[in-house]
Amino acid sequence: MAETNVEWLTPKEMATRCGISPETLRYYEQEGLLNVVARNAGNQRRYDADDVAWVEVLRCLRVTALPIRELKRFAELVRQGNDGLAGRIDLLKAHRREVLAQRRALDGALKMIAHKIDVYAQQLDSVPPVDTHGMNTTPTLRGQGVRRAL
Asked: In the predicted model, what is the mean pLDDT of the chain?
């Protein structure tokens, strides 16, 4: 493919397109998670559609809490081409199990939160209204209300 047909992105454009910060993009490069980044005649980094797709994979795996050491292992397996396919499958299957376990735990926590919201809302509905008769109740440091006329 001729270079003129490629849409090149600056680091800032790349970060924006991928939904990450430029610092995260730089970190991925420093950690060896990206292949050698192309450079223009002025030695400025530039990225193409393949780089965007790869960073989206990395971002997905990070969002699902894959540790950096495993992300590095995954990147190495990708670089191995077909020789790394079985390793990639194993890594992703293990990670999927972890993500599903986390999701089950979060679903349980969300049920508890919803339950507590319902309980507290019912309690709030049953609290009788307070008639201050023109008085303002302002809390003090000791939690005692100070009443004064409005």
From this structure: 88
